[in-house]
Each structure stands twice: as structure tokens, then as C-alpha cells.
Amino acid sequence: MVMSMEKDQIALPVDEFPQKWYNIVPDLPEPLPPPKEPETGPSRMDFLGRTMIKECLGQEMSNQSWITIPEEIRELYIHMGRPRPLYRAKRLEKRLNLKKVKLYYKREDLSPTGSHKTNTAIAQAYYALKEGKTTLSTETGAGQWGTALSYAAQLLELKCVVFWVKSVYDWKADRRVLMNLLGAKVYSSPSKQTKFGRDFLSKNPNSQGSLGIAISEGLEYAETHDNTVYCLGSVLNHVMTQQSVIGLETIKQFDMIDEKPDLIIGCLGGGSNFSGIALPFIGEVLKGKRECDFLAAQSMAAPNLVKGEYKYDFGDVAEHTPLLKMYTLGHKADMTPIKADGLRYHAAGPIISLLRKHNIVKAVAYPANEKSIFEAARLFLQAEGWLAAPESSYAVRASIDEAVKAEKAGKEKTICMNISGHGWLDLEAYKEKLGFS
Ligand SMILES: Cc1ncc(COP(=O)(O)O)c(C=O)c1O
Known about the structure:
By secondary structure, the protein is of the alpha/beta class. The protein contains 18 helices and 15 strands. Strand 6, helix 6 (144-155) and strand 7 (159-165) form a beta-alpha-beta unit. The two termini are 30 Å apart. Bound molecules: pyridoxal-5'-phosphate. Pyridoxal-5'-phosphate binds at residues 115, 141-142, 144-145, 234, 267-274, 342-343, 389, 391-392, 420-421. Pyridoxal-5'-phosphate (PLP) is lined by residues 115, 141-142, 144-145, 234, 267-274, 342-343, 389, 391-392, 420-421.
């Protein structure tokens, strides 16, 4: 089938790339509940002060709507291909026989390491360098964040240590090679490198790990090693703010074609890619400047927004972090490993959780067998030609479902999904889930 010659790629000129990140905190419908100390044990705020990047902790508490992106970070963003294009999914629309519904997708998969995670990795590595640090430590689930931080560390000539959830470390051999090529030290978590890991392993020798466990290890590593800071790839406010470049670009791209999305969809684990695309739009909704709905796509393996409780909880299993007010399944919840393991986190970050409470963000969770997710990914690949990451394929699934529902109801609708990453290093999952030998 030959399509019309109308352009399906909306490219934002480089000089239109945002100068500032958008921080939604001052625009939220009620003050964001602050982090809290638990009733017992040492001060968790002091611990974060010792182990994290000061500038990021400052941004975490910031009440400023706009934070200037330092010129060096802007240069690195542009170096790695920002602004990223927005696409109209004309071929997918055709396959779904959509007449009234338009589908668009934002291309975070074009990142050098394969996901949106580089947007905050570059910022965190830059600030760590400025603060005189030599080593970054972190956790990773899908492996995308670990690769993004290894990449950013290498660009700025820093070292990087990654604790990688065992269930994924074991099958993503190629992504491990990429992290090693980028010079990172990568450990399967729970590991023997930290006291917490050793204690956990002695009680649970067959543990498959979890993001909560890996975060505890990354934090302990930073605490016990000189000149090392811990970097987090999701959940916290400064990560959401640094990801806002996604949505800020997308707003300008829709303006360029005089179109307004009615529904924005992203997959959601801790909330960083969803926040990246959605928060700049939500800010305008809260100011009465636009109307739009927001849908987070999750797995039933970790349905924090769908089944979680809104309460104060720890961000990690070892209880190193302060308590954060979040929709949570409990920081010790046992969650079945899935192929989209980046979505397997017990809680959604405080900003997204507050917006969920106000029903501004809605959520859907798909069965943990992931069958419908991988089928959606295959259809997207065959129609549009791009292989989405397993996590991003949840956004694809939800967008297809919402498009078909609106079409059946005879409603005009413009849907925009975020393709948070590519799946070229996840082929093992595609092989297993779609039955190729
Ligand atoms: C490609 C991709 N998308 C989404 C996610 C989920 O994380 P978040 O909710 O922070 O975007 C991950 C996490 O690793 C990921 O790798």
C-alpha cells in the first residue's frame, strides 16, 4: 500500500529545543506532601544528603516552575539527537481501520542507548562532575537506565557502577555487553558487593531481585565509597522535571501542525517517561489552557496506580530512603518478574501519585503474561517499522485499545503515545513471548 505523500514526521528545529525544564510542583492542585522521616532509625534525609547529588536534591525540593538547563547539558542533549521527532502513525491507523481517530507517537527510542533515560542521566552525570565526584552508582531494572547512566558517565569521563535486578541481568546478555563497552561495572542484584545484598542473599538465596533491592544496594555503595554519588532513574521529582524536555518538545510539535492531543498515553513503572511526556501538558490543563486526558499503562505484576494504596512508604527494600507519599503496593511486595521488567516497581513517584489521587492521571493494568503486549508490539513493528521496548509496548497496547474504543463509539480523537525505548536488545523476550525458535 502506498500512503499519501503528506509528511508523517514532525521534526522540531534544533534551535527550538527548550532552554528550561518544567517543574510542575508549584502548579499541582494541592501542595505535594513532603518526604518524611520514619519514626525509628537514623535520619534518612541526612543519608540522602550524603549519598545523592546536591543540585538534584535542590531541584527535588524546588518550588520554581522553570529551571534553566545549563548550556553544557543542552549541548549534550542536542549531541544525542534532541529534539526527537513526533510521528503520525498513519500506517497503524490504516491497519486498525481508524477513520475518526488519529494516532501520534513520540520517538524516545531514538536515544543512543535506547530510551528516554538518557535525558536525566546526562543531567545527573553533569551535576555529579561539577560537585567533584568521580563515580556514579545506581540500580537498573530493564537495563535501560543502567545503560543510559553508563553512557552519560563515559561522556563526562566518570566511572559507573550498576546493580542490575537479577531476573533481567540473567537474560539480557547483549545489554550487559553494551554497559561493559561503556566501561561500567555491572553486578547482578542482590549481589555480594554490599552488606544488604549479602544479608538478603543469605536469607533468600534464590531471590530474583527487584528494583527496591537494587536501589538499596546502589545507595549503600555510594555511602561506603569515596567520591561516589547515587543516581536514581525514576520516581523522584527532579527526575520528572529533567524528563520534561519530552513533553515540552511535543507541545511545540503539535503547535507546528495546529493539532491538539485529547489523550496522552505512556507506560508507567516509577513514572519518569510518563511524566516526561505528560507533565508539561498537565501543567497547561491545570492552568485552564487546554483539555486533555492522561492514561498510564501498567502491568498487573506491579499495578501500583491501579491497586496500590496512597500512603507514605519507603522507596527501597532496605528502608534507606525517607518515606514518600505514593500509590504503593508496599516496599516489600513480592512481584512476579516480567519481560517489561522496567515496569516492576512497587510505587509510582509522588507527583504522579498526587495527580492520580485527583483523577487527572488514570491508569490501566494488563495481565502479567504480557501476551497482548507483545502482539501490540508486533503490530506496531509491522505497521510502522519500529521495534518498541517491552515497556513501551504497554503504551502501544493501551493506545490501540483506546483508539479502537473511540472509533467504535464514533468519536473523533487524537491520541499521542510515548515510545519510551527501542527493543533491539530485548529480542530474547520477543522470541519467547511470540514463539520464535
Ligand atoms: C524503555 C522503558 N520505558 C519505561 C520504563 C519505566 O520506567 P519509568 O516509569 O520511570 O518511565 C523503563 C524502565 O526501565 C524503560 O526501560
